[in-house]
Amino acid sequence: MGQNSLAGTTLPRHRPTRLFNPAEPPLVDFPIQAVQIDWDRLIAKRARVLDTVPAMPAYLLRPEVLTLLAQEKHPTYRLILDLMWTTGARVSEVLALRPTSFVDDGFDFGVLLKTLKQGPGRPSKAMLQRSPKRYVPILDHVLQDRIQSYLWAGQFKQGERLFPMARQTVNRHIKHLVERVGGRAPFAISCHTFRHSFAIHLLLHGRPLKVISQLLGHRSIDSTEIYTNVLTVDGAHFLDGVDFH
Predict the structure, then answer these.
(1) Catalytic annotation on 90?
(2) 176 is an active site residue
């Protein structure tokens, strides 16, 4: 009597809040949960990585990204930058978002991205239809509220693009934003810099390369391995304890 029934099947009164909900807490914390990162050291040594690793993409680190975001006052551009930074989406994928791209199933909030390779012009309707999708969770509650407020204020139709602009427009805005922040940027910063920064950020927090590859929408993990070169910043750790004499 204390439980709901459906076609003779007894259902629990409450659904678990997580898919995996062990009865007992784990004895040891999962090691990637707590990571201490010396951002100043990584920023200081980044030039060596970019100089010594062929084809290494330029990237920003968390304090630098947050500085840019803090200076962005335009709600539309702030949301675009937030989405590129927290999901690793290409700018073309962000600009293709519709209201239905965001998913809230009562357990998790996230975005369905259509994997679009960077190319000239706006993706065609046919390209959008045949593009594979990938789901990226968005755990930041402040960003969740910003997305929902933007959707409510915009009163968008179901198939309407949230950001009807070209990626060149976003790149120009980023250039002006960097100029407003002041100081000399270590390299040219574009939309794609945020995507690279997302990948590096996850890697520095010990997330598996396979997962990072899937979140980025790479066809092969080989495309993602380039980011592991950032670990050469602290290459001495790999030689620590190895005696040669």
Answers:
(1) yes
(2) no
CB-neighbour burial class of residue 230 (10 A; exposed 0-12, middle 13-18, buried 19+): buried
Specify the pLDDT at position 124. Answer: 54
pLDDT in tens, 196-221: 999 999 999 989 999 999 999 998 99
Topology (CATH level 3) of domain 42-237: hpI Integrase; Chain A (1.10.443)
The catalytic position among 117, 133, 172, 180 is 117
Element holding 101 (H helix, E strand): none
Q: Which residue has tokens 């190319």?
A: 119
C-beta separation of 211 from 221 below 8 A:
no
The answer to whether 109 and 138 have CB atoms below 8 angstroms apart is yes
pTM of the model: 0.80
Q: Where are the domains of the chain?
A: 42-237
| Catalytic hit among 114, 173, 195, 196 | 195
CA distances from 64 to 43, 73, 98, 117 (A): 9, 16, 29, 26
